[in-house]
Amino acid sequence: SKAQVFEKGKGTDVTFKDVAGLEGAKEEVEEIVDFLKNPKKYTELGAKIPKGALLVGPPGTGKTLLAKAVAGEAQVPFFSLSGSDFVEMFVGVGASRVRDLFKQAKEKSPAIIFIDEIDAIGRARGKSNSMGSNDERENTLNQLLTEMDGFGTNSGVIILAATNRADVLDKALMRAGRFDRQIYVDMPDLNERKEIFQVHLKPLKLDKEMDIDFLSKQTPGFSGADIANLCNEAALIAARKQKPFVEKQDFLDAVDRIIGGLEKKNKIIT
Ligand code: ATP
User: Fold this and answer.
1) Are residues 162 and 53 in contact, defined by beta-carbon separation less than 8 angstroms?
2) CA of 62 to the centre of ligand 1 (A)
3) How confident is the model at residue 136 (pLDDT cuts 50, 70, 90)?
4) Is the CB of 62 under 6 A from ligand 1?
5) ipTM of the complex
6) Ligand 1 within 6 A of 83 CB?
7) Which residues bind ATP per the record (predicted)?
8) By alpha-carbon position, which residue is closest to atom 1 of ligand 1?
9) Per-residue model confidence as pLDDT tens digits over 159-197
């Protein structure tokens, strides 16, 4: 439900093994894992540990997955909320949610806070294109900035935020001591699609080894989320046909179905 904006700081069992491709991004977040695990290594030398990093990239490329993997690898609790949950909220609720979330994370530190779709609250102030008042959104954004400034460096809480529209974000968010690092999470290329297939084929019952090269070549423009969806769709199609295994034809049927869906989606946008 809408009221359940954040998970209450449970750990995650996601690790870097679950995140296929994204080698550059993984390398960058490995440093964040180390900040969480070995803070003294940095603080004893007088270093300030960064408070936040922005994960930037198209939808479905694994930003949420990567943030969960950081928490999973560091074995720290994961607190999350989504910017879209704050749209049309009653006055004061957004800001108090943000305050609560930071309070809980500090109590459980070291911890990760993950803010998905930060652009929904983090658009440049005074430039919102939404109808009606955006005061509440601005209150929420201001509270977020206040919280980030309010806890000391080396508090043990690191905030990851995800967006596919870094260009619309309020510049104040990117200032030093806030989200001053940007990590790019791009669409997968052919080889990365192969790696993503390897992850998502694993749970399926296949008749023989699936030709991953072939599947990867059939899926240009697919994100990681599209590939995960494709694998599950293929299994659903096979099950519907009472098959004991998922076969190549089921994947081809699923590709058709998903490409059909993607085209429809694009038609609505343009
Ligand atoms: P959005 O911007 O739409 O929130 P996102 O970038 O946060 O998307 P995720 O929610 O992390 O994307 O991805 C959705 C699902 O797609 C994941 O839970 C996973 O199953 C699959 N997936 C996406 N990217 C990858 C990847 N690089 N490796 C393995 N699985 C992936």
Assistant:
1) no
2) 3
3) confident
4) yes
5) 0.96
6) no
7) 57-64
8) 59
9) 999 999 988 888 888 988 899 899 999 999 999 999 999
